[in-house]
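Troubleshooting log. The previous structure file for this entry was overwritten by mistake, so regenerating from the original sequence record. Sequence copied from the archived sheet and checked twice against the printout by T.R.
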Amino acid sequence: MEERLFLRRIREEFPDVTWTSHRYLTHGWDHAVLILDEALVFRAPKAQAYRDALPKEARLLRYLQPRVDVGIPDYVFESADGSFAGYRLLAGRELDAVTFGRLFETEKERIAEQLATFLSALHQTPKSVARDCGASEQDPRKDHEDLVRDVETLAFPRLAPREVDVIRAFLTELAAEVNPTRPTVLVHGDLDAEHILWDAENEQVNIIDFSDRSIGDPALDFAGLPAYGRDFAQRVVEQYRGPSDEGTLRRAHLYFRRGSLQTMADALQGYPCTFEEGYAEFRARFDL
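Regenerated output below.
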């Protein structure tokens, strides 16, 4: 939604909402965002599929509110046509690797504990509730086949022979973990640095953007944690009380590396990321 139209729609739908300043953010993949007076966040889906899913995302968050200890959005403003919604800004700074590295060990412990508790609760959500809130079943075999096709046709021509060999070996390893019969759960689906906020003043983790929720492998929600170090990811898994198996952490590390390949392929298909970003992630995550 264009900035002026977005502001006008908020005034029309919610005349009691007033503000003196705003920030308009468009860098997100799926939503345009307005932040009013650094106090309210309004999100407008860019595509019809996400627009249709927004009321269901709000419904899921209302279900989760009393069941999780971390902060999550509470959509107190929803437009009549479902085209946008708003919640009170959750405090905190995006937990990127640099920010994480500067924290005290006691803070890291607190974050690990809160993430483990949050994922334990999220992953125990009944599938009937998840489906009612718009979470679709993942197809791991198709997802893997799509990734292989995209990487081979789009990324390989831009890579050196040794890099191609490394990726081929990795894709073979990843294929061995594709198991459509593995138990699945409701997953956040995009739990990485930009969606994990750390409110240092209150020692509180806040989690945002549930628009990529789905039903899939629990390990998917641990895939962003290796960015903070192998030991931290293991610490979270050890405190986790949801459905898991002895391969959860191993698959999380595989999915972490897979993400860099996905970014390269997505960039070459016109998504709002760059091949250079994905390539840098690939070199770092594969220790090249």
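The radius of gyration is 19 Å. Archived copy saved in two places this time.
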